[in-house]
Amino acid sequence: MTSSSREGEEQEGPVIRDKRRIDPKTGKLREPAEEPAPEAPANGGTGESDEEVSSLKTQLNERLADLQRLKAEYDNYRKRVERDRVAVREQALGQVLSELLPVLDDIGRARDHEELTGGFKSVAESLEAVTGKLGLEKFGEKSEPFDPTVHEALMHAYSADVTETSVVDVLQPGYRIGERVLRPARVAVAEPDPNAGADDESGDEGE
């Protein structure tokens, strides 16, 4: 074995590093060797490529859109359920209160004839108060404009005292719950007299 071979083997032998913090020769504390800082990723420290970041943003926007759509569907469902609940309640109340309308009519006629006295008066007022709390509303007044959606005209006439078709007498009041009409008001109506202007003109000509 040549001398160059022995030198190569000596160089390839184990490398021993002295990591003692105190120098055995001087007895002083050694300064720690500075380790090189890790290199930062090229894209700002996330370690992810621009394509991955863009993909994550797209998925996030899609999930957000899904959540917004689900929330809108739930809000619509909740509103629809609430409308149905109110409609069912009004329908059930309407069926019950419709059976009481003849009784309320009798009470009204007795009041008009001053026959609502004594115990009958107390019972009548209690019944009217309870039906009012349940949402029953009475309507139909003299001199109000005629509305075919809530009025049923049983009598018709012409009058020079009105400027539009109006209620001149309420034969039977109407009742409703909210927007639901249980019974239209049965009324007598009057329209403006078409000959009123002609009579005035003929009178002026005679003078």
Explain what this protein looks like in three dimensions.
The chain is of the alpha+beta class and 207 residues long. The protein contains 5 helices and 6 strands; from the N terminus they run ααααββββββα. It has helices at residues 3-11, 50-98, 101-112, 118-133, 196-206, and strands at 136-139, 151-159, 166-172, 174-177, 180-183, 185-192. A 3-stranded antiparallel sheet has the order 1-4-5. Strands 2-6-3 form a 3-stranded mixed sheet, with no helix packed on it. The longest helix has 49 residues, at 50-98.
- Would you identify the CATH architecture of the domain at 137-196? Roll
Gyration radius, in Å: 48 Å
Tell me what portion of residues adopts beta-strand conformation. 15-25%
Low-confidence stretches: none
| Strand ordering within the main sheet | 1-4-5
Under CATH, the topology of the domain at 137-196 can be stated as: Nucleotide Exchange Factor Grpe, Chain A, domain 2
Derived from helix and strand composition plus strand pairing, the structural class reads alpha+beta
**Overall mean pLDDT score?**
82
